[in-house]
UniProtKB/TrEMBL annotation:
Name this polypeptide is given: ATP-dependent DNA helicase
EC identifiers of the protein: 5.6.2.3
GO MF annotation list: 5'-3' DNA helicase activity; ATP binding; hydrolase activity
The organism's place on the tree of life at top rank: Eukaryota
Catalysed reactions, semicolon-separated: ATP + H2O = ADP + phosphate + H(+)
GO BP annotation list: DNA recombination; DNA repair; telomere maintenance
Record key words, sorted: ATP-binding, DNA damage, DNA recombination, DNA repair, Helicase, Hydrolase, Nucleotide-binding
Taxonomic placement: Eukaryota, Metazoa, Ecdysozoa, Arthropoda, Hexapoda
Cofactor(s) of this protein: Mg(2+)
Domain DNA helicase Pif1-like DEAD-box helicase stretches: 1-59
Recorded family membership: Belongs to the helicase family.
InterPro entries membership: DNA_helicase_pif1-like_DEAD (IPR010285)
Amino acid sequence: MAHKKSFEALDRTQQDLRGNSELMGGALVILFGDFRQTLPVIPKSTPADEINGFLKQSFLE
C-alpha cells in the first residue's frame, strides 16, 4: 500500500500536466484492493503514523 502523499502528489502532477484542476486532472484512475485491510508500510513508525498515512485519511477519498 502506498502512502497517501504519493497519491496526493500524483493528483497534483496530473492536474499540472493536463491543465485541469479537477481530481486527477480529469483523468480516470483505477485503483483496486481492499484499502480497509491494507495499511501503508512505514519503516520505524508508530501505529499512529500508519493511520495518518492511510489513503482514507486523505482529501482524495
